Prior knowledge:
The radius of gyration is 16 Å and the shape is globular. The mean pLDDT is 80. The protein has eight helices and no strands. By secondary structure, it is an all-alpha fold.
Amino acid sequence: MFFDILLYLFENYIHSEADIFAEQNELTDELLRAGFNKPEIFKALDWLEQLADLQHSDESPYLIANPKYAVRIFTDSECQRLSAECRGFLMFIEQIGVINNVTREMVMDCLASLDKPSISLEDLKWIVLMILFNVPGSEEAYEQMEDLIFDEPSELLH
C-alpha cells in the first residue's frame, strides 16, 4: 500500500509545476479520497521528504576512495529482498551509465527504507527513476531510465 502511494504521487505529480509538499493537508485529503489510509500516507510522505533531501545532501557518505572501480556486494538480507533479476538489473544500469556507485547506494538506502519483504523488478525500476529525478545533474540518466521503463523493445536482442 505504501509503495502504491509513492507510485500514485510520482505518476500524478512528476510533470506538475505544483510543489507536492506545498499543501500537505490537501494532498493527504486527495490520497484519502483515492482510497489510501492515513498511516500509509504519512509513511509515504515521510519517505518522499527523505528522497527530496537527496537534492541537498552531501554525497560523501556514499563515496569511497576509488569510486570508479567500486563493486557492490549484496548482504544476505539484501539478496532475500532483491531477486537475482533485480540485482542483475542494478548492475546492468550501472554498466550502461544510468546510475553510478553514488546513485546506486542511494537506491539501496531508499530500498532499505521500504517496508516490503521483497522488491519486484518493476518496483526497483520506479525507485531508480524517483532517485534520478531527485538528484541534480541526472537529467540524461533519468531520460535513459524512462526509456528502459516505458519503451518496449522493437526487436529481439541476439
